[in-house]
């Protein structure tokens, strides 16, 4: 029997059997795995909080024949504010879903783990605008996965002037002279480009006090969402809810 000791974040949980729950954990040392919390559906179980969504904890997990089982756990971060706030909860759900979909079973990435931990902490502690936060998160995520869009220079000729288009297939900003070289080049407002750069490079706490018009926010979101779809080839369900939240 193998014992795993690792820090991990709860991405998802489901019911299993009569009294148990199964959690999708992103572990720092062993990647993504499914772990059963025996008896977690009973209110007095010591595992009730162990598999709460977005919890960060140190776990001792043993490998059974068919499943991993949580044996012990110690809380590191509960993210209490996320639980209490619908907007924060939606953003955190989106973040957990993206990471869950990107990772294969047992796929390990300490960089992605730390990025997730940092992002959830920001959602929990900062005042956030859901759409701005998600755009910034998405840009940081695609960049971390190796698809950082080129924003300072034209992706075709490298010039820094007249970057008036954006192309998913070419991978970033395109100047007026090169727009025909990228079949999907779409017009890009100067302010939108500025916002995208800021969302990508600025840390989350820098997003708290910026003023961005709704039109620009939505344009940035549209561009990033399409860019992610093109490069990661995944679509995310919980994003729909965030879009609805904008209209509430
Ligand atoms: Zn160019």
From TrEMBL:
GO biological process: DNA recombination; double-strand break repair
Native source species: Thermoanaerobacter wiegelii Rt8.B1
PANTHER family: DNA REPAIR PROTEIN RECO
Alphabetical list of SUPFAM superfamilies matching this protein: ArfGap/RecO-like zinc finger (SSF57863), Nucleic acid-binding proteins (SSF50249)
Gene: recO
Gene Ontology CC: bacterial nucleoid
Domain DNA replication/recombination mediator RecO N-terminal per the UniProt entry, residue ranges: 1-78
Function: Involved in DNA repair and RecF pathway recombination.
Name recorded for this polypeptide: DNA repair protein RecO
Sorted UniProt keywords: DNA damage, DNA recombination, DNA repair
Family that this chain belongs to: Belongs to the RecO family.
């Amino acid at each position: 029997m193998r014992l795993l000791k690792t820090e991990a974040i709860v991405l998802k949980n489901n019911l299993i059997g009569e009294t148990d729950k199964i959690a999708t954990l992103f572990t720092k040392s062993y990647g993504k795995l499914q772990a059963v919390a025996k008896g977690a559906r009973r209110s007095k179980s010591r595992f009730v909080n162990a598999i709460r969504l977005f919890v960060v904890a140190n776990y001792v997990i043993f490998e059974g024949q068919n499943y991993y089982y949580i044996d012990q756990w110690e809380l590191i971060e509960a993210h209490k504010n996320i639980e209490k706030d619908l907007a924060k909860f939606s953003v955190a759900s989106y973040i957990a879903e993206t990471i869950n979909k990107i990772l294969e079973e047992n796929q390990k990435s300490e960089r992605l783990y730390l990025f997730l931990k940092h992002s959830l902490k920001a959602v929990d502690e900062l005042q956030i605008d859901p759409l701005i936060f998600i755009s910034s998160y998405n840009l940081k995520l695609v960049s971390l996965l190796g698809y950082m869009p080129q924003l300072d220079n034209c992706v075709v000729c490298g010039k820094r002037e007249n970057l008036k288009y954006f192309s998913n297939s070419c991978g970033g900003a395109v100047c007026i002279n090169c727009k025909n070289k990228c079949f999907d080049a779409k017009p890009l407002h100067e302010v939108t480009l500025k916002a995208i750069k800021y969302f990508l490079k600025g840390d989350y706490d820098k997003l708290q006090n910026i003023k961005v018009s709704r039109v620009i926010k939505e344009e940035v979101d549209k561009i990033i969402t399409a860019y992610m779809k093109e490069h990661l080839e995944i679509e995310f369900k919980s994003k729909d809810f965030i879009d609805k939240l904008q209209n509430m």
